[in-house]
What we know:
Layout: H1 2-25, H2 31-51, H3 53-72, H4 77-90, H5 94-103, H6 123-136, H7 138-146, H8 148-179, H9 183-204, H10 207-228, H11 230-233, H12 235-262, E1 268-272, E2 279-283, E3 295-304, H13 307-324, E4 327-334, E5 337-345, H14 351-363, E6 367-373, H15 378-385, H16 388-406, E7 410-419, H17 422-431, E8 434-436, E9 446-455, H18 458-474, E10 478-487
Antiparallel strand pairs: 1-2, 2-4, 3-5, 3-6, 4-5, 7-9, 7-10, 8-9
Amino acid sequence: MKRRIIVAIIIYLNLLALAIVLTILAPASKRGLFIVLGISAIILNTIYLICGLTYFINYFIYFAAVGILIWLFPSFTILFALFGGTLVVVNPLAFLTKILDKAWPHTSKGILKVNNFFFIKRRAYFRYRSAMKEHYHLPQFLKIKNHRTYKLLHSASLLFILFLVVFLLFWDIPRIAFANLTQMSIFRMYVGVALFILDFILYKKGFSSLLAGFTILVFPAFIILAVILYKNLGPTLFIIFISITFVTMSLNLFYQLKSYYSRVSYLPIHYVDAKTGVEVHANGFFETFVYSNSYTFMAKYTIKASKTKFNQKFQKLLEYLNFRKIILMSYTSEGDEISLYFLFYKKDQKKNQALKVYLMSLLEQQVSEYSFDDRTFSIFEGFFMQRTEFIIAYAKNLAYLSRLLLETKLILISITYYFTKYEKMMSFFHAQKSVRVKNIESYQTFVLNTNIECVNNDFIIENSMLDTIILASINEGKFIKLNIYNIKEN
């Protein structure tokens, strides 16, 4: 993946340098052709960056075929543009991509994920937010999965918008080549880019997010049109129109930004702690990102408040945390006392006091605080993660999602433990069929992975796991992670 990024960046830089040279040296009559070749190269290089070499080869063939046809028969441009749009949507060379993926597996590293290479310091939070957003949009996925009409509408909309994007591309690029760049060409290119972004939003999020994206992207189109129609509008009307557009766009951006941060959810791993009797709601999203080198400052707040009042204000609290990039690890309740456990970026300790003030204002109660730099993750491990009830509740939670999304009937529960004593590890190893995971072991730390097959039923899951968890506890094993896999029935 890193090699792909480096190669793509080098190509972008070379294209930029070439564009500067050609702008100075190329004759005016040839500039349209160079612009077309440059746009095509940028699009193909972006496909290579995001999807990999095999997809690049696939779409290069499409671009080359349609481009040659348009070059040879310019009078049939609109016909070939329709053909190109249909070609990309139908994707007849999909089989070639699969063949090349198998032949060159090192070039097929999957789709580029931006969070893996940007926001490095706060990467843990952005991955956490991504997991939270996926859960927030779960109803959209279930609509597509369970409602045939909605699925057909969603698929047809995706393909139609993609067709429009490719059609505009193939229709307008030859105009640029033969008549140079015009204002309407710029407008149509913007529309094509905007439609592509909206298509991606529809694919990832759904129709409501598509509408939100449209309300943002439509304003630049108005501005470009106003510039094109400047002579018809006149200076006074132009200034009024641009001013109204900018004010409306700014208000809409503010509203959409607020809406974006309000799209939050919480996946509670709910159980009652057998030792303390405390009702626990651990964060199911956070469990995957426990061990972060950047999010290490922990704060615990205790407040007197009824469950009803706290639940009424919980959504606002989640929105506040999302905006300020703070993670709620867990919250517990005992009587009318609520305890909340938060994790901050290590350099955001000042946000601790701001959050305390916000909680007092939100719940109208005094808050007691306990905070420190928890670099060993002792709080979440000791109070939640290593508890038997947590492990079982977490497994049930994942099993429920598996039933909901995949209608899974048989599952394999994969549990990973680490041991600090070799003889204890061997005792567990002999008693419970397991596999050593040596690639994540360190000095005097031994890691075992054990699998449990069972029916996807909460009662059976709990009974199937209990013996393994008790055996690990007896041998001083520490829980690391848990995964659920679907077992296909014969």
